[in-house]
Amino acid sequence: MKECEQIENKLPLYLDDSLSGFDKKAVEEHLKSCPGCTKNLAQLKKMHALTNNLAEVEPPAWFKQKIMVSVREEAEKKSWLRKLFYPLKIKIPVQIFATICIAVLAAYVYRSGEDRMKEVATSYVPSPAIEVQKEKLPERKLKTSTDEDVQKEQSIKRQERILPAKGMVREKDFAAVPSPPAADFNEQSGGAPATRSVMIPEKADKVESYKAVDSAVTAEATDRYERPQIAKSEMMAENRLEKKKETGVGDVVMKTARIPQVQTMVKSSIISLRVADRDKAMIEIEKLLEKYEAKDIIRQKTPNKTILTARLKNQKIDAVKDHLKTIGRIEFKDISTNSFENETAIFIEILND
Amino acid sequence: MFWVSNTIESRKAAVEDEDLQYVTLCQRGEMEAFEVLVERHQKRMLNIAYRMTGDYDEACDVTQEAFIAAYKSMKSFKAEAKFSTWLYRIVMNLSKNRLKQLHGRTTRESLRLDDCGDGRAKETGNPSLVHDGNPGLDMERREREAHVQQCVNSLGAEYREVLVLRDIQGFSYEEIRDILKVPDGTVKSRLSRARNALKDCLAKIIGDL
Questions:
Q1: Residues A217-226: pLDDT tens digits?
Q2: What is the distance of C-alpha A11 from the center of its chain?
Q3: What are the phi and psi torsion angles at A87 (to 5°)?
Q4: Which of A282, B9, B114, B162 is the most buried (most CB within 10 A)?
């Protein structure tokens, strides 16, 4: 039985004579004495005959054409891909060259775009700057011209509040000339506060026109305008300053256009001059100041005193002081004020002896 | 039993050398050369695919795919083996892949090795079978062939492929070894088991063989 199992595994190969000589002999010997295995072999032969004689299937009509159509389609795809990627020996350098070209072109486009951006930037950015300049120019102009005065005012008033920049600009715009030092000399000398500021209003309608712009400043100006005690002195100052409007404003503008002067805080002097006749002394001092080429001479009269302010060259201050000693009895009070490169503001307070 | 070998040998086409010539032309891009190869091998390819899949339409698809795959890989053919062997390996592999797909896709009503006798005959459409003129004989033969195919379908792929190649298509052991790339001993042992299984299956379906 065990032998039959072994023979059964060899019988299929015995069919087509695929067994080795030894196995073949063993199978043949076994088949002589085993009807079961003989029957199996007969069945295997029939089965083999069946499989060997299975009818072949024929390809469908146009099968070859159908295959060739598919193959051609594939070939077209392949050739398209080949154009892109094959043969590598040729295409890779071409692709590298193309890549380099694209990179160079991209860099060129980027740079040219950058230049254009710069052009745009230069054409666009400065325009608001010009506008700003246009807007700021008068402000700066006035500011420059007024800086010294404002600084004077600040230095004289010391603790007095500082007007807002806008207000200052408008104030100067309004005055159209550098304002005289807003000094409260009474405060300094202990007198009654008569003048807080020397801002000079021109006309009421002008004041009105600025109301909308800066009501605070305008109000302040109007308030001052209405003060009877300073009206006269202001009118006098106005006469002087109107002259300056023609020359001084232009001068101021020119100054603004120039390189701004370097300001430094220095000790300056308030000169209190006690005289018998204030008016006479005032005329003398004005002549003296003009003689020593003083600038921005402003006269301010109050019932108690007359104030003259001016800008003098540093080297001429001592000479002026010496001359003043001949006019009356003088006292010096040091204050901090702005000194420009070679000019110093002086304040002469003329009091009755 | 020697007639089997003779049959197999006789089935060897005498076109092997000519194949190489056309393969070379085809590798140079001549489509007509490939058309000649298609013409030569389409029927054998289709029959291998048909016996492997058991379905005529599937076999047509597989054959077409095999030719396309062969064309795409034509450059890689180094003539180390016969072109036909290479071609049949392609169609055999594609057939096995298709079998896996079909097995996963549909619940087959195929017979297993252990229950082939319980299965009912399944007619597989093979309209292009070559038949005799006698309708009665044709019917009997078609039925018998259907039974054989049914039993072939019941075999596992590794047994089916050796049986198809050896007993149905008549390839030599060397050719089978080259096509399947398995050793001779493996081919023989698989073939032995496949034949016994097929005999048992047919005996159960048909009765006395």
A1: 444 444 444 4
A2: 99
A3: -75, 145
A4: B162
